[in-house]
Design a protein that fits this description.
With about 70 residues, this protein is mostly beta strands. It is about 0% helix and about 35% strand. A hairpin with a 5-residue loop joins strand 4 and strand 5.
Length: about 70
């Protein structure tokens, strides 16, 4: 069976590292790494989000790109 996690939200101030991540249905076991624009850093437990076999993204809290403190 094909397991879909749905779309990954488009990150502000960054992008997913693969065009395969910018689709309306992300399929298990796709892993996407968040790459932040210059001047921004990844905030969160991990910069990689994976579509799991249960149809949910892991980690459940999406990484975000935040401005680096000088």
């Amino acid at each position: 069976a094909i397991v879909s996690c749905g779309p990954l939200p488009a990150p502000a101030n960054g992008q997913w590292n693969s065009s395969a991540c910018n689709v309306s249905d992300l399929l298990y076991p796709t892993a996407c790494q968040l790459v932040c624009e210059e001047g921004f850093a990844v905030s969160g437990s991990s910069d990689v989000v994976t579509c799991e076999s249960d149809g949910l993204f892991s980690p459940s809290s999406m990484p975000t790109c935040t401005g680096k403190s000088i």
